[in-house]
UniProtKB/TrEMBL annotation:
<dbReference type="InterPro" id="IPR003953">
    <property type="entry name" value="FAD-dep_OxRdtase_2_FAD-bd"/>
</dbReference>
<dbReference type="GO" id="GO:0016491">
    <property type="term" value="F:oxidoreductase activity"/>
</dbReference>
<keyword id="KW-0560">Oxidoreductase</keyword>
<dbReference type="Pfam" id="PF00890">
    <property type="entry name" value="FAD_binding_2"/>
</dbReference>
<dbReference type="InterPro" id="IPR050315">
    <property type="entry name" value="FAD-oxidoreductase_2"/>
</dbReference>
<protein>
    <submittedName>
        <fullName>FAD-dependent tricarballylate dehydrogenase TcuA</fullName>
    </submittedName>
</protein>
<keyword id="KW-0285">Flavoprotein</keyword>
<feature type="domain" description="FAD-dependent oxidoreductase 2 FAD-binding">
    <location>
        <begin position="3"/>
        <end position="429"/>
    </location>
</feature>
<dbReference type="InterPro" id="IPR036188">
    <property type="entry name" value="FAD/NAD-bd_sf"/>
</dbReference>
<dbReference type="InterPro" id="IPR027477">
    <property type="entry name" value="Succ_DH/fumarate_Rdtase_cat_sf"/>
</dbReference>
<keyword id="KW-0274">FAD</keyword>
<dbReference type="InterPro" id="IPR012831">
    <property type="entry name" value="CobZ"/>
</dbReference>
């Protein structure tokens, strides 16, 4: 019999498989995707948010525990389990040597991501290189890997794992780690979570999926039906405003448009709807998907002028270009009068001091609702650019409640051989909001814990079985 069964194929699953194998357990990993699409959403990542008290190779200065915690507290609005959040934060300070041993390499932050050079360690080659390194290491260590192996149900007995089913095939194991992601690719479940808005629209019908098409939430729904303890709001997710021309699935980071804080955002009625300069982009970029989802037609338009060009990571798709603002409104098919009033009022409200996009500068608006708190400069220097944006779901936050041992709970009681990691439990730490790289911090921390605990449970059970 297998000691540890890992269900999933992304960062958290791989960390669990590697840790369990290093602890001496036999491990089988089941990845729902075919080999060429392996890695879940982790293949689209590029960095890990790391606590550190002094400069470390690619990380500048210091990013102490309390600052990390305060950043997380701010973006979640306090909707987080402090004990599990701090566990994640502390684990982020010690995981990189282990990651290197398994082939992950790091590099300094790229141009256009300098805000993250103190807080986030970037993977050389991005997330695809990271998951490839982990798969190579797992294979070298003797982890068995099966692709095209979606698990649709489990056999449970009194809160304990017994077996998993891939179609009609039953696979037994002494312990199991669930790391199969959220339900972001399940359109019906997204519809159910978001419902209809006051305009009678199904917002979810206009969502794009930044990540993998294989995260249908099948096991999450199964576990909910089996009475597992659940945490999180099904409508909350890592949701980013991405280019409306992005593909339905697997667009990843390159579909983002990072110019929002340098200009204004308007809806299809030509009206602004939120403070574009509230905080640094890495801390606020993930609120914009939800904000756009609440707008008519689930679409927003980022408007900048030539002053902003070169100050943000160039997007894959070129912006709509015009030599005047009225021409831009027509090109974007926005109501020209409303658009021009919005831009005229905004330009007049700007109080420009010392513009500096690397700090929370003193360029702001006065007498304007919503305010723009920082980086407010008149949009008056042609050419002008506009980007139509739609909500892009990366992963959902509804998940399984867990503890410091990464155990799945039933009626408040932790299972002694069923564990959870990654997006299936991220809602314990992320009740809402997001800050760059923290998803990988959660997946790495709880993947390693889940793998260690699963191996301990399996090997303990093996000893008892032998004694019997």
């Amino acid at each position: 019999m297998i000691d540890v069964l890992v269900i999933g194929g992304g960062n958290a699953a791989l960390c669990a498989a590697l840790m369990a194998r290093e602890a001496g357990a036999s491990v089988l990993l089941l990845e729902a995707a075919p080999r060429e699409w392996r890695g879940g959403n982790s293949q689209h990542t590029r960095n890990l948010r790391c606590m550190h008290d002094a400069p470390q190779d690619v990380l500048l200065d210091a990013y102490p525990e309390e600052e990390f915690w305060q950043d997380l507290l701010k973006v979640t609005g306090g909707n987080t389990d402090e004990k599990l959040a701090r566990l994640t934060i502390r684990a982020s300070s010690t995981c990189r040597p282990w990651m290197r041993r398994h082939g992950v390499r790091f590099q300094p932050s790229l141009a256009g991501t300098l805000h993250l050079s103190r807080t986030n360690a970037f993977f050389m080659g991005g997330g695809k290189a990271l998951v490839n390194a982990y798969y190579r290491s797992a294979e070298n260590l003797g982890v068995r890997i099966r692709y095209d192996a979606p698990v649709d149900r489990l056999e449970l007995r009194d809160g304990r794992f017994v077996a998993a089913f891939v179609g009609g095939e039953r696979i037994e194991a002494r312990a199991c780690v669930l790391a199969a992601g959220g339900f972001e690719s399940n359109r019906e479940w997204l519809r159910e979570a978001w419902g209809r808005n006051e305009r009678g629209e199904w917002p979810a019908d206009n969502f794009l999926i930044r990540g993998t098409r294989f995260n249908q939430g099948t096991l999450l729904k199964f576990m909910m039906g089996q009475g597992a303890d659940i945490i999180g709001d099904p409508s909350q997710s890592h949701c980013v405003a991405i280019d409306a021309r992005a593909p339905l699935y697997d667009g990843g980071i390159c579909t983002r448009v990072d110019a929002v804080s340098l200009g204004v955002m308007v809806n299809r009625e030509g009206l602004r709807f939120y403070d574009e300069g509230e905080d640094f982009w890495p801390k606020r970029y993930a609120i914009w998907g939800r904000l756009v989802a609440l707008q008519p037609g689930q679409v927003g338009y980022c408007i900048i002028d030539s002053q902003a060009v070169g100050r943000f990571m160039p997007p894959v798709f070129p912006g709509v270009r015009a030599d005047s603002l009225p021409e831009l409104a027509r090109a974007l098919q926005l109501p020209e009068d409303a658009f021009m009033k919005t831009l005229t009022d905004y330009n007049a409200a700007c109080r420009v001091g010392s513009f500096d996009h690397t700090v929370l500068d003193d360029c702001h608006t006065e007498g304007l609702t919503p305010v723009k708190s920082h980086w407010a400069r008149p949009i008056d220097t042609p050419p002008f650019l506009g980007y139509a944006l739609k909500p892009g779901i990366t992963f959902t936050y509804l998940g399984l409640k867990t503890n410091e041992q990464a155990a799945v709970h039933f009626g408040g009681v932790p299972s002694d051989n069923l564990f959870v990691a990654g997006e299936m439990m991220a809602g314990n730490v992320l009740g809402k909001g997001y800050t760059a790289g923290v998803g990988m911090s959660i997946g790495t921390a709880f993947g390693r814990i889940a793998g260690t605990e699963a191996a301990r449970a399996a090997l303990k059970g093996e000893v008892h079985a032998a004694a019997a």
